[in-house]
Specification:
- It is a single chain.
- The protein contains 10 helices and 10 strands.
- The protein is an alpha/beta fold and 272 residues long.
- The strands form 2 sheets. It has an 8-stranded parallel sheet.
- α6 links the parallel β8 and β9.
- α3 packs across α4.
Length: 272
């Protein structure tokens, strides 16, 4: 299956869907998920230092022999590694674990009040070394992005946040679009919340799809990069089968009314 690519402000591109690996801590589960994903056409894999599975992802990708240049690998700088003396060392360890000489996308995982400014300076150094092709952030609000944009040498190209039909964050999405920052949507299925919603089910029936596929397709229609996670081959397959249909204006209007400000993960709203 051909996956669309989105062009980033630094000139690189990112596949418009990826396999999320959060909470996937068993080597066998990572290997199984990666094998199923590669078979179905995924080339974009989203890990993080705190996930504890970088080494499992690196081993699995090496095992199945896909050329490095065909892959898109993301990892994230963990909160405890944001100090200058830790950031570069932790990045080196990530490269070692992932068995690669470079990362396609390196993100600051969370806007920690005391350390995020110095963390970004380390990110810029890593980017300038060529070992991270693109750099960005995760869980940043508009206020955090404004602060960063006012002080950075290298602009973030991505903001990865929780985003789904029940947490649509239109103001944040609009701000990112205005500043040419692509939004990645983690937990695009809202941890299975509201899968039986009557509105989603009617739209799914209309298109001959599942409610999960409608939720992921909504992200695609909004220009986001969804990162659904699963270790089950059938769900991994279904989650990528969203490029053979489109939601119409009526579908999108009905989904817009599902907004509930529902957070199932971190809430950075009140982080100073």
């Amino acid at each position: 299956m051909d996956i669309p690519n989105i062009r980033l402000s630094d000139g690189n591109t990112i596949p418009q869907i990826g396999l999320g690996l959060w909470k996937n801590r068993l080597p066998s589960h990572v290997t199984r998920a990666v094998e199923a994903a590669l078979k179905e056409g995924y080339r974009h894999f989203d890990s993080a230092q705190i996930y504890g599975n970088e080494r499992f992802l690196g081993s699995a990708l090496q095992k199945f022999g896909v050329k490095r240049e065909e892959l898109y690998i993301t990892t994230k700088l963990w909160n405890g590694n944001q100090w200058p003396e830790d950031a570069l060392d932790s990045f080196d360890k990530s490269l070692e674990h992932l068995k690669t000489e470079y990362i396609d996308l390196f993100l600051v995982h969370f806007p920690v009040t005391e350390t995020r400014a110095m963390a970004w300076r380390s990110m810029e150094k890593i980017h300038e070394s060529g070992r991270a092709k693109s750099i960005g952030v995760s869980n940043y609000t508009i206020r955090h992005l404004e602060e960063l944009l006012a002080n950075c040498r290298v602009k973030p190209v991505i903001n990865q946040v929780e985003l789904h039909v029940y947490l649509q964050q239109p103001e944040l999405v609009a701000f990112c679009k205005k500043h040419d920052i692509v939004v990645e949507a983690y937990s695009p299925l809202a941890h299975a919340h509201g899968m039986d919603n009557e509105v989603l089910q009617a739209i799914a029936d209309k298109h001959g799809k599942s409610t999960a596929q409608v939720m992921i397709r909504w992200c695609i229609e909004k220009g986001l990069v969804p990162l659904p996670k699963s270790t089950h081959a059938d769900r991994i397959k279904a989650n990528i089968e969203v490029f053979d249909f489109a939601l119409d204006a009526d579908d999108m209007a009905k989904i817009e009314k599902l907004e509930a400000n529902l957070r199932t993960c971190w809430d950075p709203t009140n982080v100073a």
